[in-house]
Amino acid sequence: MAIEFSPVVAAHEKRIGDAFSARSVDLGALGDATSPVLVLDHFRIDAPVFGPHPHAGFSAVSYVLEDSLGALRSRDTLGNDIVMGPGGIVWSQAGKGMMHEEVPEVTGRELRGFQIFVNLSSRNKFLEPRVFSLDAGEVPEWRSGGGDRVRVAVGSFEGVASPLVPVEPFSLLDAEVRREIPLGLPPSHRTLVYVLSGTVRVRAGRADTDLGPGQALGISGTGGRAMLECVRTARVLVLSGADIREPVVANGPFIMNDPSQIEAAFARFRAGKMGRLAPLSGS
Length: 283
Hints:
Blueprint: E1 4-5, E2 9-10, E3 12-16, E4 20-24, E5 37-45, E6 53-55, E7 58-64, E8 72-76, E9 81-84, E10 89-93, E11 98-104, E12 111-119, E13 130-134, E14 141-143, E15 149-154, E16 156-157, E17 160-161, E18 170-177, E19 180-184, E20 189-204, E21 207-211, E22 215-220, E23 225-242, E24 249-251, E25 254-256, H1 259-270
Antiparallel strand pairs: 1-22, 2-22, 3-4, 4-5, 5-12, 6-11, 7-10, 7-12, 8-9, 8-11, 10-13, 14-15, 15-18, 16-17, 18-23, 19-23, 20-21, 20-22, 20-23, 24-25
């Protein structure tokens, strides 16, 4: 299958009061090229905004950027209470349902990062929930002789593998592009490229596209590699996972395959089967 690029999409700004803002990528505009990623928000937050809430049917991922001024506090009904500093990641594989709350560890100290929703295939939507996390020092890195650097938060890259292994194959790469970085395109996977800063040229065969800050591109197809080439020193997030060719029905905090599963998830939540989580003081 030939390698194909989606249209380039610019993230749009969304705000909740004065405490939360995000560059949010309209993944619908990229079509199927982003599966299994369903939400990608590049956020800044400096005070609690979202109280305890449930999730089911997907994984909610919080990746804290290395330049974040503050840390993330992540609590859930599995008994975890994690403080994650800059460069760390919390992967909440919600499965059949769990409650969590994520807030800046210190109010007034800006937390910068990504919130990512990764779909689960039908065979895994009703697994027992699990939470994985890595501190910054546990995230392995790849470096080139030309100064390129890739933090391998999830998955693998050029022989470097993350110890964080979710139930379905996925890669989350935080790349600093100074010269060029190769991107392998595994069979039946889709890849999403998002630029935080700088300018990068994405090249595959005879096709190439330049991306600047806040722009995203989906790559589909297999048959070799794409290249990320530096136009101006760039920071790039690369997400890649197996394409899930199943119906997607989303309603609030739940992502399922049909409306009856959504109704069942709400019933489990109302019955307390996803647990109870009291809000933090001030949340």
